[in-house]
């Protein structure tokens, strides 16, 4: 499968379940999250996918998701590149807070602005623009060249670091990216053209 790039958001984490802002905090997967990772692996296996390279963040929820996917594919020995450039967006002072409590304190509009806007930072944290500034250069330097060499590449990461990549791949604007949300355990399968543009995109569903 030439020029294959698969983006997978980690399975449900313990803090996803509790409706907490997570960011750079490091909770593990829930039982549901473990099953979501297995399901993503089985869906990829059903397509006959085999990977040449795998990338993930420094956070356990993304790393464990990657491990479970590779186990399903019979590729447990595949070399994994771990890099903080793929970490989730840093939510700063919001990390660990319940999202409903945050809405009660600051209002729905302000919390939505922190969560979904392109360049508004939560207190002490990163905007999506900041996340793009570290994620996209790493993608261009380390990941895209492998894909263009016709290697099949898997990335297991986070909602916002993957939104950063989707913004580039899909040619979205700072306004249209606000509507993009990637579910836990979701697998986005891209095939790229030789000029790095997208030939096709598919969301794998159970």
Keywords:
single chain, Rossmann fold, 6-stranded mixed beta sheet, 7 helices, 15% strand
What's a quick, concise take on this entry?
The chain has 206 residues and is α/β, with parallel strands linked by helices. It is 40% helix and 15% strand.
Task: Give the amount of beta strand, in percent.
Answer: 15-25%
Low-pLDDT regions? none
The largest β sheet comes out as: 6 strands, mixed
Question: Approximately how much helix is present in the residues?
Answer: 25-40%
Q: What is the ordering of alpha helices and beta strands?
A: EHHEHEHHHEHEE
CATH architecture: 3-Layer(aba) Sandwich
Averaging pLDDT over every residue, what do you get?
96
Rg (CA only): 16 Å
Q: By helix and strand content, what is the structural category?
A: alpha/beta
CATH class: Alpha Beta
Tally of helical segments: 7
How many strand segments? 6
Number of domains: 1
End-to-end Cα distance, whole Å, is: 21 Å
The CATH homologous superfamily corresponds to Phosphoglycerate mutase-like
Strand order of the largest sheet: 3-2-4-1-5-6
Shape: globular
Could you tell me the CATH topology label. Rossmann fold
């Amino acid at each position: 499968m030439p020029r294959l790039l698969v983006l997978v958001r980690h399975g449900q984490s313990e803090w996803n379940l509790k409706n907490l802002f997570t960011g750079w905090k490091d909770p593990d997967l829930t039982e549901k999250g473990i099953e979501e990772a297995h399901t993503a692996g089985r869906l990829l296996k059903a397509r006959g996918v085999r990977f040449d390279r795998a990338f993930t963040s420094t956070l356990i929820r993304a790393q464990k998701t990657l491990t479970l996917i590779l186990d399903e594919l019979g590729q447990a020995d595949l070399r994994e590149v771990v890099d903080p450039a793929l970490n989730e967006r840093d939510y700063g002072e919001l990390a660990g807070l319940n999202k409903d409590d945050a809405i009660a304190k600051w209002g729905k509009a302000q919390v939505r602005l922190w969560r979904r806007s392109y360049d508004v930072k939560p207190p002490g944290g990163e905007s999506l623009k900041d996340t793009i500034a570290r994620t996209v250069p790493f993608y261009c330097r380390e990941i895209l060249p492998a894909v263009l060499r016709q290697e099949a590449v898997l990335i297991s990461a986070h909602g916002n670091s993957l939104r950063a990549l989707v913004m580039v791949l899909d040619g979205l604007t700072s306004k249209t990216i606000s509507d993009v949300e990637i579910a836990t355990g979701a697998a986005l399968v891209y095939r790229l053209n030789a000029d790095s543009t997208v030939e096709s995109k598919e969301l794998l569903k159970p």
